[in-house]
Amino acid sequence: MSAYPRKELEEMVDRWLEANKKSEQEGDWISHLGAMYTDAAEYSWNMGPNREFIARGRKEIEDWALGAHMEGFEKWRYPYEKIIIDEQLGEVIGIWRQVAPVKRADGSEYEVAGVGGSWFRYGGDFKWCWQRDFFDLGNVKSMFMELAADGKLDASVKQRLSKLAKGQQLPGVYPIHAEHGFAKKASALLAMIRIVLMGK
Predict the structure, then answer these.
(1) Global pTM?
(2) CATH number at residue 194
(3) Could you give the number of structural domains in the chain?
(4) Tens digits of per-residue pLDDT, 29-57?
């Protein structure tokens, strides 16, 4: 017996995709997506080797995931390319792209290389109870650099990058493990330099 009827999960996906389109059109992610999470939902993604973003509960999801972390990305588009539904587990995987709201001088779109995705767990009543995003952080950084070089990086994203460079973190960002001290970091850097220069 399945966790949820297939048709119910398909309708949830349809509602989600429609809400995403409205969010992109209006630049308002909280209003359209916030109500699609259970009160105790969890939403997370990786932000690098020792950083995880985790929002616990609908309020944190709205304030942090759909709010603070979407500042500067309100008009970005995240078109879904593929949806996989597992009605036995009540889970969905959506594969999407990341497209900036500006274009290059030649008319082509600024788009993060590769694909990203979201792994959802259904909580009933047309709401997600868990979500985990995945994407290539290196490709995202590369896109930011290209946008910056072309003078098309959103002002709020510039401010965010400046804060991050100074050690300030956005809400909901936690270390995965204890930070390494200076000696360990220096040792790792020297090891990589040796590998690059000497091949060993």
Answers:
(1) 0.88
(2) 3.10.450.50
(3) 1
(4) 999 999 999 999 999 999 988 899 999 99
